[in-house]
Sequence to fold (110 residues):
Amino acid sequence: MPDVEHIYYFLGYGKQDAYAKEVLRLIKHHHWRQVFQFIAVGHKHNTSLAYHNLYTVCGLVIFSFVCSIVDWQVGVVLFGAMVSHYLFDIADDFIQLGNLNPNWKRWGRF
Fold:
């Protein structure tokens, strides 16, 4: 399943990308099964996501830690879940691609 950044990419800063155009075309024509199949096959090669990088992971770890210090449990769960998601993405890249996705190697586009 795509996370929020994928949706932001499709509708915002990456909407001119061929991958995003194809996803939006399939959604527009209500080809839901093809959307999910296309994303499942092609999402690993979508390396233009601005926040899928190590800066974001480090920032989320810090936010989660701060939330635990101030005893804000919702923040710990929210930011901790995001850290888990990104760490899963990193591990999945190693398993499926045999190396680290180029997006993770890039230390941010800020």
